[in-house]
Amino acid sequence: MTNETTQRREWTVTGMDCAACTTKVVRAVERMPGVSDVRVALMAERLTLDLMPDSTPPEAIEGIVRKLGFGIAPKGQLAPRKKAFVLPDAGSPVRISGEQATSGTVQHAAVLPERAWHQTAKGRLVALTGTLLGLAWMVALLTSSQVGYWGFVAACLIGVAPVAKRAFDALRMGQPFTIEGLMTIAAGGALLIGAEEEAALVVFLFAVGEVLEGVAAGKARQGIRALADLVPKTALLEEAGQARTVPADSLEIGQVVLVRPGDRVPADGAIIEGTSGVDESPVTGESVPRTRGVGDAVFAGSINTQAALRLRVTRAPSDNTIARIIRLVEDAEEARAPTERFIDRFSRIYMPAIVALSASVIVVPPLAFGQDWTTWIYRGLALLLIGCPCALVISVPASIASALSAGARRGLLMKGGAVIEAAAGVTHVVFDKTGTLTQGAPIVTDLVTAPGVDEAELLSVAAGVEAGSSHPLALAILRRAKATAVIVLDARDARALPGRGAQAMVSGAPAWVTSPAHATEIGGIDASTLDRIAALEAAGKTVVAVFRTNRPLGLIAMRDEPRSDAAAAIGQLAAMGVGCTMLTGDNPRTAAAIAAGLDLDFRAGMMPEDKLAAIRVMKRQGRVMMIGDGINDAPALKEAHVGIAMGSGTDVALETADGAILRDRITDAPALIRLSRATMGNIRQNVTLALGLKAVFLVTTVFGVTGLWIAILADTGATVLVTLNALRLLAFDPTRED
Questions:
Q1: Taking the model in full, what pTM does it have?
Q2: How high is the mean pLDDT of the chain?
């Protein structure tokens, strides 16, 4: 037996306007041999699947998608903005140059630009069917009704022909219950019972509805595409002392670029010369420029506001911060909310049930009660149109997509609908201390040396142990050593002691920088310093002990101030009915000093496993969100119902947790919950609107109050209303308190 492995393949698919479109693609493609794990992202216009070697060729998959009426091209090629009524021979992909195919921008959104609605095939069909319908009415008024009859028949047949073709193609792929199929049956049935005028009007309204759906879907995608447009198309590359303009997507790691005042930064990089104010609002949503100097990181798309900067590129164009944010937002579509999954399952039952109900309305009254066949056929056909679940199916993903886009513009990232739904139900928020509630940039305040040891030796050993570490306390020690021009001793075999500190071989002998508690266990603290440690900790300072084997060297005390908005964030969460707790590995005295100023509960002296256990206990009492730095707190972030990482664009912040707060503002924690709650409220409105309209018109149709054209208007109108309601979230500002 051969051991075959699947390959992950990806295409760009255009022309999808609603969730029903994605469902058709998924159900058609997943039936093909060797195909599994099919996923279609509506807003990202992406089809991904696993394909077994030597099974279905990729060309066959593309052919199936084109038969359904959509444009498709492999990743890295331009997909045509093909609409559902374009003839099959218009669907061949447009090839692009190798240079374009390797650029991050083209690979990310390989589609031709959006066209105005009247330039699309659907728009032209609306114009054609509308013109034919108008001519038919004029002919009927100016001549005999018989001549007008044929005008309405012609308008109906011409308009329904492409719809019928799509319905037939879907039927051959095992999808009998599609809106195109219901539409074809309703239009054909109306012609047969002599309701030709309404049949033509229904076809016209259906075409109008599809155009409106396309316009609404396009607007929903604009928020994501606008992020990609923030990165400039060109950059000033410095080579051999000369600057020349090059495409920004051709930059390579290590190259040096010049960013003039007023220019956008073309790539993620580190400043090597210059100091200037940098407006990072495109990335973090923070509107106040921050001063950046040599050694500081800057993000692609941010704006240099003051002086010229030279920076070294640290990330490839396809992997810059904005590109990663866009990928995160687009990939989030696949992490569907439980509500969305339920509605998808419900719609699979709902459609056949509506068809069965329609058939019963047509057959039962005439056969059982001797009613008029024409009347009940007409009402049954209207039920078919009303029963289409498009509005219901799109109600959740449209809201989720809008919320993800609105959040991304404000530095709030969430990995999909499941995270949004979980965040909306949060009852308790757990914070890490260092780097989360505090600035994460402590400063050394006290150096306490042991007898026979001077401050230079204390610092040189401590800096040797911490060299290369990115922990905030380690950086504080290294900054103090640099400021006092202390020689950092050579070190090797450095390793972290989770929750305790670090150790290394410094100048050939073991050395430690650890918490006082751990130092006490292994003889690293002189008993005479215990009172001094207590006094420093009582002042809200964090103390570490520096020692060699059985030889204390002294103590280093540091203080990390709370973030300026931390108290406001805790107050906002309390007003929202959300409890707060701080979990920290720091000592109880320092933790108490920080917690007292913020008015929240705390638990101190916690190892990573202790935080994990605490989260598990809290989960039994409600929905828990954990906010940490995304590195030391990884186990707790994963254990919480929702894990949110702090940090402007770091890999950990974007990949480890369920979401990220890019602006490093604690007040963004309640903002994220507000956005999630607003999204779930929007979803409930959409579902109520979709089901409510259908319920009303189902009843009025059965009793003969409304007819075919009202039925299609109710269906397409509900879809458009639901989409427009979801788009309201794009303007929602979660930072505003209720």
A1: 0.69
A2: 82
